[in-house]
Amino acid sequence: MNRTVPDFKFHLNHACGWLAVLAMLVARCAHAQAPSPNSTRMFLELGEVALVDEIGFTTGGLRWCSVAPLRPSADLALTFALVAGIVGTTELDLALPIPLGPGVNVTPRAGVSAYVVSGAGGALGFNYGAGVVLNPNGPVLLRADLCEHALGTGGPGRPTVLTSISAGIGWRY
Predict the structure, then answer these.
(1) What is the rounded distance in angstroms from the CA atom of residue 140 to the CA atom of residue 13?
(2) Residue 169: CB partners within 8 Å, gap ≥ 6?
(3) Domain definitions of the chain by residue range
(4) Contact 170, 142 (CB under 8 A)
(5) From the CB of residue 95, how many other CB atoms can be counted at a distance below 10 Å?
(6) What is the pLDDT of residues 152-169, one digit of tens each?
(7) How far is CA 48 from CA 5, 57, 123, 139, 168, in A?
(8) Does domain 5-27+47-172 have CATH number 2.60.120.10?
(9) CA angle at residue 70 from 69 to 76, to 5 degrees?
(10) What pTM did the predictor assign?
């Protein structure tokens, strides 16, 4: 089912509310954790992808990234959506986690994207965005992301631009 931009804003408000509740729960568990020797984390994410002023759809997926401060690293996401068919997305980015204070990292990232739609083909492009990670050294952490995707499907010399927002809960593995 397609959603309009007002629906996207409705879901964004609800996602932010749930993220605030989860952030308070994680903060209560985040008593001066020592950094773990393995800085790689896996996140289970939910989000929304929207074509500006047109349609949007809900996504779910997994993300793997490093939370080691000031160390460039790979950030890989695999997401999907069930709409009229299956829409799959892959992002492979270069990311740099930057500590903002105890228990908070901001992670700017940029890289390549691929969208695949069952029965209709796919598109390649690039993306850029940033995430905020709460409790990066703890056993459980939260991440929220905002990302722009420019895909080569908008006609000659004009990419299609999609905006995605996601929030997820992560853990060490």
Answers:
(1) 23
(2) 22, 43, 44, 140, 141, 142, 143
(3) 5-27+47-172
(4) yes
(5) 22
(6) 866 676 788 889 999 999
(7) 10, 6, 18, 26, 12
(8) no
(9) 80
(10) 0.75
